[in-house]
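Lecture 7 notes: from sequence to structure.

We start with a single chain of 431 residues. Read the sequence below before looking at the structure.
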Amino acid sequence: MHTFILKVQLLLILHTLGIKCLNTFKENTTLFVDNGDTFVFNCTCFSGNESAWKGPDGNDTVLTAYSTGRKINPYLNIPNIFIYGNYTIGKCHLEIANYSTVNDGIYECSYLLSGNLHIQRYNVFSKRPPKNLKIMEASENNAIYGKEGVRIELKCTVKTGIPASTLFLSKEGLTVSYGRSDILLYQFTPTRLDHMQNITCYALSELLTAPLSQTIYLDIQYGPSLKIIQQTNESNIEGESVKLCCHSNSNPNVHYIGWAMNSHELNSWRQRGRMKVDGTRKVFCLRLSPLYRNHTGNHTCIAENSIAKSNSSIAINVLYPPDVKVSYKISDERITLHCIPDGKPDSYTYYDWKHKSEFNEDIRTIHGTPEGQLIIKKSHSRKANEDDGIYVCTVFNGVPDLQGNFHQEGQTFIESIGKNYKPIEMYILLS
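Now the structure, written as tokens:
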């Protein structure tokens, strides 16, 4: 056997001795073969001493001599290897019948041609599909757990096939990473929008009839996101009802949700004991019935889970009819009365003043200013008590009172004593 190996190595010895005149040409080819196939490699040869085949024999590093020319190594113990050819046409073929994984390796043909050394190397592998694909961080129920804003790294592994398969990671059908290796990484910072989304790792190979894959879902924890919806008429008129509903979205679900105004809690719900709260959404409503003017202000929904505490506010502006007061100022020349309404909205229409007797009998109607002022000039020719009586101011701001009246009144009483006047402010009357 040693003699045969020496003959096979003769080409390299010749190359060494003729180093000044010989050139070396190398060619590498990678091939993938189906198990059970018969495969033929071609090599140039014009005589037995100018070509040789070498190949694997259970050793990954050292190649074994297969033949010189068409003469096969008598010590070669590989039953499915055949060497044949024709020196006349310059071909020496190496045939592997019924190919299997034990035939994987490097096959090398060396030959001399026109004073140059040619080396043809074939890297041959049996085709194998990928297997054992797995997303490493997945739980038994195929979930990946994370928290909003905290970076996640996914690692998909596979026992890669031959030829190498291509790994893909897709999120809701959109490819986010890919590569031709046995490990594929994907890093991202999740938000609440990623909760319950699917991520799939799959391997594509020509040897697979369907992709090798695993799908997981994301379980992302996040604090409450709040949205307030007013479910009743938004006019917010005093005496009517208002329903405010706070819609919370969080994972895990909230263990507290409540309503407050000016830091004072109005109503709330708390998870008690081992009470289980499923899902991510909760709705908690506040009803203000009847609505009063002191409900004007910011109403705040507060919600809390194990991740964070959140709040959201809505401004309630209660509309109500004016309370009307009448002020006055007396001088030697005139009596000036001012109508002072207090309501929402604070845009008012003032009607003519009414002058009545102390017995509430109508005396006259007097036109005042658009700003609600009435000026009565004194006259020496008039009787001393002619201007005595009740003065009534009537105001409108478009909002009815609880009895449905749109016009609100305020009044005062003025009484003369000799040439002097004794004004008396009256209590507010609504009509």
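Helices lie at 2-8, 10-17. Keep this in mind for problem set 3.
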